[in-house]
Design a protein that fits this description.
The complex is a heterodimer of chains A (318) and B (252). Chain A has 318 residues and is mainly alpha-helical. Chain A has 13 helices and no strands. Chain B has one domain (2-249): 3-Layer(aba) Sandwich (Rossmann fold), CATH 3.40.50. Chain B contains ten helices and twelve strands. Chain B has helices spanning 40-47, 70-73, 92-98, 101-104, 110-122, 138-151, 168-185, 196-202, 220-223, 226-233, and strands at residues 2-11, 14-24, 29-33, 55-60, 63-64, 77-80, 156-160, 188-192, 205-210, 213-219, 238-242, 245-249. In chain B, the strands form three sheets. Chain B has a six-stranded mixed sheet with strand order 6-7-8-3-9-10, sandwiched between helices. Chain B has a four-stranded antiparallel sheet with strand order 2-1-4-5, with helices on one face. In chain B, strand 9 and strand 10 (213-219) form a beta hairpin. The longest helix of chain B has 18 residues, at 168-185. Classes of the chains: A mainly alpha (318), B alpha/beta (252). At the A-B interface, helix 8 and helix 9 of A face helix 2 of B. Bound molecules: adenosine-5'-diphosphate (ADP) and magnesium ion. Adenosine-5'-diphosphate binds next to helix 1 of chain B. Chain A: This is Iron complex transport system permease protein. Chain A: InterPro entries: ABC_BtuC-like (IPR037294), ABC_transptr_permease_BtuC (IPR000522). Chain A: The chain crosses the membrane at residues 41-61, 73-94, 100-122, 134-153, 180-198, 219-236, 266-286, 292-313. Chain A: One of its GO terms (cellular component) is plasma membrane.
């Protein structure tokens, strides 16, 4: 049953992709297809990265409300951008080569996530069951810290530069940099292959630590590997389009709802397809059909935020 | 045999187990008894490598639990822990099927599915096999988790308070099943029990823990004396012989 739904999701994705490429296309077809194709690839990559990282994160934390952005990733991204503006000035920041900006973000994001894992792994001798909670607490505290430092920097820079910082710390699905697509495709492909390889173990990890160990899973190592996958996926997507706080939550819960299964062999591709459909379909409708000026990220985040509230009110945090 | 040698354990500077050495006989049912907080669950979790062993050694069937690959141990030993929370929304059948994971690593065979069905039937869960775990009663949940350990089909089975939440009949059926598992399939079963009379009837061997120490250990009929009960539980109770069995009249 869920397998069939996966096929429907794939068909929907194809429809969205074709619509994205062709609706309102005029003039030089070769140019239009190349231009839109690049954008399609970028949006799909980001969509899949967000979906897979969120599902993995929620499996590890046995929770359906928390997302990687809770670990302070979006806050770190905002901090990095603001810091760049602070040190380079608004003009210097605008002149920065995209690769430099990307790798700066990517590098620091990886570093920060490894620091988080350090706290996770450093206390292996502790009583059991605490690991995940400590990680989450660390993430929340880092998030608050990053935000405070960001606002501190923003007070220091001059108002014109502040505008540059403020816009680049908000997600934009419309301005994905084509130059970065190749390198981020490679990083993301590696992460996705690893996640697929782990799909059965992930099913067991969702049972919790003790059950997973009882069933012969090398728990600590698997959690570590999964966290590294999450970190690289989130880093790439955040560096490509900026922080997206609630979209992952929207997509993962939509997936759990439409695909009622515990099997990651279904959940991972399903979440990826749904995520891509929402972003590509949404972008097509907004841009081509409605001629909307509201960025898609605003609408998606609004829907995600509503989902978040509904989940909290319904008390279905598990 | 489960061979426990000089095992000590401490958490946050507090001693939980001190210098436990005991051998749990192969192919028998061993009951682990003692007051709340005696360290029974801790001892089981150390045997099942759920916590790192701080001091001493534990061997299960000659396999050192700290050295043997976890994958291999999962085919030798299964544990039912005292509290079980799930993240995913699973049906009873899904949960029980996980018991076969050590044998197929995610790709179940026909044989695996057959053993899952058998486990479901033997715990009388057939009528609720497609219900979700978070939508059934506590006792039914407990049975589902027991069935999962059962489906793992290991030579060694550790059960931490498996009778929690079970009604009289289910409790009796489960204890009978454990008895026949050891008698007929020569499985080694270690079970934490609070009702000493279940131990009296179904266990071959009883181990008594108190304050993290081993205070009594022996064949069932030798264990069940006024002195031992007093030593382990700090309470007096009459002992009655009914037929060939001993009962501890601890209700009053
Ligand atoms: N995670 C923990 N942190 C600190 N102390 C613990 C922890 N788990 C258990 N203990 C302590 O260890 C002792 C033994 O606990 P446990 O093995 O669960 O006892 P039992 O199963 O016999 O009731 C208790 O005194 C308890 O307070
Ligand atoms: Mg206990």
């Amino acid at each position: 049953m869920v397998e069939r739904r996966l096929i429907y999701a794939l068909l929907l994705f194809v429809v969205c992709a074709v619509a994205f490429l062709t609706v309102n296309a005029r003039g030089n077809w070769e140019f239009v297809l190349w231009f839109r194709g690049t954008k399609l690839l970028g949006i799909s990559l980001v969509a899949i990265a967000i979906a897979v990282s969120t599902v993995l994160f929620q499996t590890l934390t046995k929770n359906r409300i928390l997302t990687p952005s809770l670990m302070g990733f979006d806050a770190l991204y905002a901090l990095l951008q603001t810091a760049l503006v602070f040190f380079l000035g608004g003009l210097g920041f605008a002149q920065l080569a995209p690769q430099v900006s990307f790798f700066t973000s990517f590098f620091f994001m990886m570093l920060a996530s490894l620091a988080l894992f350090g706290t996770l792994l450093g206390q292996s001798q502790q009583a059991r069951g605490e690991d995940m909670h400590r990680l989450l607490l660390t993430g929340i505290i880092f998030g608050v810290l990053f935000r405070s430092v960001t606002s501190f920097f923003q007070r220091l820079i001059d108002p014109n530069d502040f505008v540059v910082a403020a816009t680049s710390s908000m997600a934009s699905f419309n301005s994905i940099n084509g130059d970065l697509l190749l390198v981020s495709s490679v990083i993301m492909a590696l992460g996705l292959i690893a996640a697929w390889y782990l799909r059965f173990d992930l099913d067991v990890l969702a049972l919790g630590r003790d059950a997973a160990i009882n069933l012969g899973i090398n728990y600590k190592q698997r959690v570590y590997v999964t966290l590294v996958i999450i970190a690289s996926l989130v880093s790439v997507s955040t560096a490509l389009v900026g922080p997206v706080a609630f979209f992952g939550l929207l997509v993962s819960n939509l997936t759990y709802h439409l695909f009622p299964t515990h099997r990651h062999a279904i959940l991972l591709p399903a979440a990826s397809l749904l995520s891509a459909c929402v972003l590509i379909g949404g972008q097509t409708i907004l841009e081509q059909l409605l001629n909307f000026s509201t960025p898609l990220s605003v609408i998606v985040e609004f829907l995600g935020g509503v989902t978040f509230l509904l989940l909290i009110l319904k008390g279905r945090s598990r | 045999m489960i061979d426990i040698r000089s095992v000590s354990h401490a958490l946050h500077g507090q001693t939980i187990l001190s210098d436990i050495s005991v051998q749990l006989p192969k192919g028998k049912v061993t009951a682990l008894v003692g007051p709340n907080g005696a360290g029974k669950s801790t001892l089981l979790s150390l045997i099942a490598r759920l916590q790192p062993l701080q001091k001493g050694t534990i061997e299960v069937d000659g396999l050192d639990v700290t050295q043997t690959p976890s994958k291999q141990l999962a085919k030798t030993l299964a544990i039912l822990t005292q509290s079980n929370q799930l993240a995913s929304r699973l049906t009873v059948a899904d949960l029980v099927a996980f018991g076969r994971f050590p044998h197929h690593q995610g790709r179940p065979t026909v044989e695996d599915n057959k053993l899952v069905d058998e486990a479901i039937e033997s715990l009388e869960l057939t009528s609720i096999r497609h219900r979700f775990i978070d939508e059934i009663s506590g006792g039914q949940r407990q049975k589902a988790f027991v069935a999962m350990a059962y489906a793992q089909d290991t030579d060694y089975l550790l059960l931490d308070e498996p009778l929690n939440n079970l009604d009289m009949k289910s409790a009796r059926t489960l204890m009978q099943r454990l008895g026949s598992l050891s008698a007929q399939s020569s499985k080694t079963i270690v079970v934490v029990l609070h009702e000493i009379n279940y131990a009296a009837l179904y266990a071959d061997w009883i181990v008594g823990l108190k304050d993290g120490r081993l205070v009594a250990n022996g064949e069932t009929k030798y264990f069940l004396t006024n002195e031992t009960i007093e030593q382990v539980f700090d309470m007096q109770a009459d002992i009655h012989d009914v037929g060939e069995h001993r009962f501890v009249m601890h209700y009053r």
